[in-house]
Amino acid sequence: MLAERETGDYPLFSRLDRNFAILSLITGALALVSAIVLVYERMQVYIDPNHQSICDINAILNCGTVMRTPYAEAFGFPNPFIGLVGYTIVLTISMALLAKARFANWFWICMNIGHLLAFAFVCYLWFNTTFNINALCIFCMVVWLMQTFLLVRVTARNITAGVIPAPEHIREAAQGWSWFVIVLIVVVIYGIIVIRFFDQIVGMF
């Protein structure tokens, strides 16, 4: 049934793309703003090594501690520069979709791969900040959350639209189950953070 809709019912896919565009516009904008703030704060640290960033709240929530580690420059330059480029692209695609642009399946596959790689990088940063740096960056955590939304929702869109091959019952359920997957990932990521820093969190009160 969905196979017929893929060719004959454009409004279905227009609706899928519109919904994804709205979500990616919001999440991409929040992630981009976070990246801009982090780039600004990193530049201030370059200028003044003793600079205290706006998100240096305590020993746990301390962007300054995180950005002064090698993990903050995984590719030889500050990680937020990746966000500046990546989320600008996300916003551009979102606006194109809202303008009713249509992309080929290969483009959606590339988008899915791009968001998957971005999420893999998020997992790398999450692991190192949680278990090696022992400090958290608030704006980084915003990006982690936004990237989770982007990956799961673009994957759900592609499954529903038949870009990613799947049985019909999975294609029909993908949109609804995607929200459960998002909640599950968020609970795992941030739940582990709470467990890891539980004693310090309790000590604040």
Automatic annotation (TrEMBL):
GO terms for cellular component: membrane. One of its GO terms (molecular function) is oxidoreductase activity. Keywords: Disulfide bond, Membrane, Oxidoreductase, Quinone, Redox-active center, Transmembrane, Transmembrane helix. SMART domains: VKc. Coiled coil: none annotated. Gene3D superfamilies: VKOR domain (1.20.1440.130). It holds the Pfam family VKOR. It is found in: Membrane. Residues 17-158 form the Vitamin K epoxide reductase domain. It is a multi-pass membrane protein. It comes from the Bacteria. Signal peptide: none annotated. The keyword Transmembrane helix applies. InterPro entries: VKOR, VKOR_Actinobacteria, VKOR_sf. The chain crosses the membrane at residues 20-40, 81-99, 106-127, 133-156, 177-198. Belongs to the VKOR family. This is Membrane protein.
